[in-house]
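stage 2 :: seqdesign
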């Protein structure tokens, strides 16, 4: 990110302000029970309000579906691998895991889809940054982890991936694999500069995914997957809402013009509601 800005604007000084958010600090409770995605962005937004930071770079899947007043997503960078993946020292695939194997997941979405496909596995929560989770795996606390492939690859840990799970079997979270750049809404100067970093196709897909999630009140408290791709000029969007135990999984898909990204997301959400998503949401 820093290098990309310097390539575009070599006369610009870019400083990294390292911060640890509440989402990084509270590691003994699942995100769905302590406030969800907002725990990863609140401190960064405070820094922008106070003038200590100009922009914040987030994993798009960690950005709340509705931003607080005064902020905007100024650019969405080209997507890295959006898939979930298996990390295990002993097993090469999910199919190779024996009944009762402990599989760590930090996501209700992953947990529901794992339970649907592999009801005999013991899917259990795992928290902490990637190094912490991998250390727990290496100590034998888990037989495998299911993680976002993009996070491992960005941190140079791609060699730990035993195999990626195709979206047909583990539908990604809205925004998974993409980076979003946030700034204050009144900083038109920054928004203009950052627009050069925006990847048009990724931006359309992520806007559609976020619109669907927003329409379904999506958060860490709901097993929800939404994933879009652009092929032959059309945006193909798939969505999933499930119960945590994986016994009920609702799926829908839609396609249309990328310029109608938000409308497609909202229509996909309406399809899922028609299938019974409201009952799951109510529970």
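stage 2 :: out
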């Amino acid at each position: 990110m820093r290098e990309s800005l310097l390539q575009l604007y070599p006369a610009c000084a870019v400083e990294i302000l390292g911060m640890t958010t509440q989402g990084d600090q509270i590691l003994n409770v699942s995100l769905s029970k302590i406030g969800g995605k907002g725990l990863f962005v609140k401190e960064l937004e405070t820094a922008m309000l106070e003038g200590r930071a100009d922009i914040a770079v987030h994993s798009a899947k960690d950005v709340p579906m509705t931003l607080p007043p005064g902020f905007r997503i100024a650019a969405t960078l080209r997507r890295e691998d959006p898939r979930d993946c298996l990390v295990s020292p002993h097993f090469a695939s999910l199919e190779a895991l024996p009944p009762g194997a402990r599989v760590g997941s930090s996501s209700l979405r992953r947990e529901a889809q794992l339970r649907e496909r592999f009801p005999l596995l013991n899917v259990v929560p795992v928290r902490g940054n990637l190094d912490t989770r991998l250390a727990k795996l290496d100590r034998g606390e888990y037989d495998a982890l299911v993680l976002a492939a993009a996070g491992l690859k960005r941190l140079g840990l791609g060699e730990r991936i035993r195999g990626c799970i195709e979206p047909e079997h583990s539908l990604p979270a809205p925004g998974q694999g993409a980076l979003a750049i946030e700034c204050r809404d009144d900083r038109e100067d920054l928004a203009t500069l950052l627009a050069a970093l925006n990847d048009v196709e990724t931006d359309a897909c992520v806007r559609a995914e976020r619109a669907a999630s927003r329409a379904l009140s999506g958060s860490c408290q709901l097993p929800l997957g939404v994933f879009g791709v652009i092929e032959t000029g059309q945006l193909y969007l798939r969505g999933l809402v499930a119960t945590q135990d994986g016994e009920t999984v609702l799926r829908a898909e839609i396609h249309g013009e990328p310029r109608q990204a938000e409308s497609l997301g909202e229509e996909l959400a309406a399809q899922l509601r028609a299938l019974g998503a409201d009952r799951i949401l109510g529970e």
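stage 3 :: structure notes
- The two ends are 40 Å apart (CA to CA).
- The longest strand covers residues 234-242.
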